[in-house]
Each structure stands twice: as C-alpha cells, then as structure tokens.
Amino acid sequence: MRSFTSVEHRIDERAHRFLDRAPAGGVRAGLIEFAVFGLKQAWACIFGAALLAVILAARLWYPEDAGLARNDFLTLAAVTIQILMVAARLETLRELRVVVLFHVVGTAMELFKTDVGSWSYEAEGFLRIGAVPLFSGFMYAAVGSYMVRVYRLFDLRFARYPRRWVTAVLAAAVYVNFFTHHYIIDARWVLLAAVVIIYGRSVMHLRVFRRQIRMPLVLAFLLVALFIWIAENIATWSGAWLYPSQLNGWHPVSSDKLVSWFLLMIISVVLVAWIYKPEPPGPVREAGGSDAGESQAVPVVIAEGGATR
User: Fold this and answer.
1) How far is the C-alpha of 147 from the C-alpha of 251, rounded, in Å?
2) Is the model's pLDDT at 57 over the cut of 60?
3) Is 309 in contact with 89 (CB distance < 8 Å)?
C-alpha cells in the first residue's frame, strides 16, 4: 500500500470513524461508495480547481485599471497555490517533480502553438516568455497534479498494461505530431488508432472504499479528456486564452479538441507511469499492513509511495 501524507492520514482516520459503521450492502452502501468516489476526485482535482477558480474570479472581478496586469496576477496566484499545496502537505515533493515536468513540457508546447497562431493570450504583463504568460504552464501542471494524485488516491492498478517503452514511443509520436502537423500531414487519427490498439486490452482497477472498480483504460482516458475540455470552455470564457474563432466573440470550444485532449492524456499517463511504475492488480493492504479482501474496508485516502510526511 502507498503511504499517507500526514494530512491524508488524519482525513482517513476521521472518515473511517464514520464509514466503518456504514452497511456493507444495499442502496446506502452504494451511495457511500459514490460519495467517496466524488470526494476523492475532488481531492485529486484540488490544484486544477483552485487555479480554475482564480481564473474565473479574475474574469469577473479583477479591476481593469489595476496596476498589476491580470496575467501577472494569475501567474503569482498559480505560484502561491503551488507553494501552499506543498507547504500544507497536500502534495508531496515527489509529486512536485512530476508537476514541474508537466510544466516544462506544456510551456514548450505553448511557445510553439502561440507562435503559429493556434491560440493567443492578451499581450500584457511582464511575467511571460514572448507571447506566453507564465501561468499557462501551471494549467498543464494542474493536469499532472491530478494524474499523480488520482493514481495514489484510488490505488490504481493495471491489468495487461503495455510495455512502457512502447507507450513512451507512442507518447513521443503524439507530442511531435502536435508540432509537425502544421507543416506535414496530421497523423492524429493514426495515433488515435495506435492508442486503441496499444491500450485497448488494458483494464484499470481502482479502489473506492470497500469496492474495487474495473474500467477499460481507454474509457478512462476519454472521461478525463472530457472533463478537461469542459474546464477549457470555462477558461476560454474567462479570457485566459482564446482560439482564433473566439476572437470576435466567445463560443464553446469545438468538440474536435476532445481528440487533442485525449492524445494529450497519453503523454500525461506515460510521464506519470515512467516515475510510478504501473502495478498489476493484487491484494490491497490496510493501513496497518494486513491484506484486505474485497469485502473489507480499505483506506479512504491512499497516498503515494515513500515516507509518511
């Protein structure tokens, strides 16, 4: 079992005081599993949710005549959120390394995409590289934060996970295509087919409370991509960035972007899997170290490997 952060350990203890008395079967048990699933997802999304809330609040209430440019305010707010995540032990230092990696990969893509006109930011503020405000990298970091947190919160295991070197080659091809499709043929549909072939047999096992759920990994990619697309609509409405078709008036982001986000998920999963080796399904251990069967309660919050902080 992956060990807890100190904050998560306290949350887990308090949750068990209530949940251990709950029935193991029936409608109420199902509702509890659903509630725990939602709370875990919310906990995993805390970085992205906080950043999105700041972006939305800046759209609604940030003064037009403020001495600090809105983009610079968003960058400082993103840095503050990241510092608080680590200082409050909501995120471990090992997770922070993954988040920084996402930040670097995302910023490199932003620099290229804004240069070729795929989307644009308001040309304001000092905390930027060229036309790219520094807060943009934190949006990719938010995806990375979610990925590593959901990995441990649900104690994710994978049946028939592809060889990591194969997934690395696929992820590299996806990343390169984000750049090269502007100059040569767009291979996204070939890459999409490759994802289905390579990951099609893989099944994700996730532990909620008492129950372990199985889900095709490709379906999990699609669901996460869908939620990122919804968040993207909120962010573009808030003016964080705009696509060329939105410059004369906002409208929902094209559903075609779902394919892009789906492929980006492959890059995200490979980056996380390269640091946290995917493990096959097996016995889930209780906080005390004993094996837990399917009918036994397991930790409500399951944290990453390494020393308890």
Assistant:
1) 28
2) yes
3) yes
